[in-house]
């Protein structure tokens, strides 16, 4: 009986935390947008009324955050980090965001498998006790190990949130960029996020828009031509200001707005995943097409 009560208390705590986070970030989204051109964009989206729109966004955000927290313990399973032994095709490398782990990609991995992209890897990095560059180098080492293990397979990089910033930075590494057939970032704070001021750990400090790391990242460009796509949303309440999710000029990324979708909701939205899959498949087709 004690175990049941403990589980119920744990679930209730997750629900409380998820709701609190959703309320806070959407309040900050409105605060950051008030009196700016983005306020008008939000009002256009809120056809049914602003309060109803924001309450709906908070509810969806809380539900997605709850599911993410509930499934995070699964990220410790070694099987989540590597593909099935006989999986074919290009190597799809999913890079998770801040405070997350490979478990956040459960649905995207399923959708990519269904699309004929089953060879999947999920690098890990630690969010609390290291800065951005050591985290990026750790992911780069894992990507290079994947490249060595699969010398004849193209690499697909898919990054959510901070994972998208890491993916974009990896393209500045010449040996990696030459092997990448496509790169997709989802809800990435390409120009930083002021919400980082509320986070904890060393890595989040580098996410602030005025940090030395974030300012330096604006100058990085791919070391080789790579088809690259940035998916973002006008209601992403974890990248503030919202326009900071736009990739820097000269980065080589296509900048595409998704259907109305929150930051964590990206991970559970089949339409957004479909946009990424279509881009990857198109890039692979272009790579294999004979030149004229």
From TrEMBL:
Keywords: Membrane, Transmembrane, Transmembrane helix. Residues 138-191 form the AB hydrolase-1 domain. This is AB hydrolase-1 domain-containing protein. The chain crosses the membrane at residues 7-31, 51-72. It holds the Pfam family Abhydrolase_1. InterPro entries: AB_hydrolase_1, AB_hydrolase_fold. Gene3D superfamilies: alpha/beta hydrolase.
């Amino acid at each position: 009986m004690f175990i049941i009560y403990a589980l119920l208390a744990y679930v209730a705590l997750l629900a409380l935390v998820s709701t609190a986070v959703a309320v806070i970030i959407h309040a900050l989204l409105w605060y950051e947008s008030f009196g700016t051109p983005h306020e008008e964009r939000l009002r256009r989206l809120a056809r049914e009324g602003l309060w109803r729109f924001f309450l709906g966004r908070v509810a969806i955000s809380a539900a997605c955050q709850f599911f993410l927290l509930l499934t995070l313990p699964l990220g410790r399973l070694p099987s989540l980090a590597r593909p099935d032994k006989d999986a074919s095709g290009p190597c799809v490398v999913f890079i998770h965001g801040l405070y997350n782990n490979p478990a956040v990609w459960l649905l995207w991995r399923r959708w990519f498998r269904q699309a004929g992209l089953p060879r999947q890897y999920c690098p890990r990095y630690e969010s609390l006790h290291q800065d951005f560059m050591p985290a990026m180098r750790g992911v780069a080492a894992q990507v290079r190990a994947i490249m060595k293990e699969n010398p004849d397979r193209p690499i697909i990089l898919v990054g959510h949130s901070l994972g998208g910033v890491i993916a974009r930075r990896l393209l500045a590494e010449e040996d990696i960029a030459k092997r990448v057939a496509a790169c997709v970032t989802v809800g990435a704070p390409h120009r930083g996020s002021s919400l980082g001021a509320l986070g904890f750990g060393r890595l989040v400090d580098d996410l602030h828009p005025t940090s030395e790391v974030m300012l330096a990242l604006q100058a990085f460009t791919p070391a080789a031509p790579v088809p690259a796509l940035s998916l973002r949303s006008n209601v992403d309440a974890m990248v503030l200001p919202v326009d900071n999710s736009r990739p820097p000029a000269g980065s080589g990324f296509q900048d595409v707005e998704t259907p109305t979708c929150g930051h964590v909701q990206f991970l559970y939205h089949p339409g957004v995943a479909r946009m990424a899959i279509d881009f990857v498949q198109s890039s692979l087709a272009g790579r294999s097409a004979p030149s004229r």
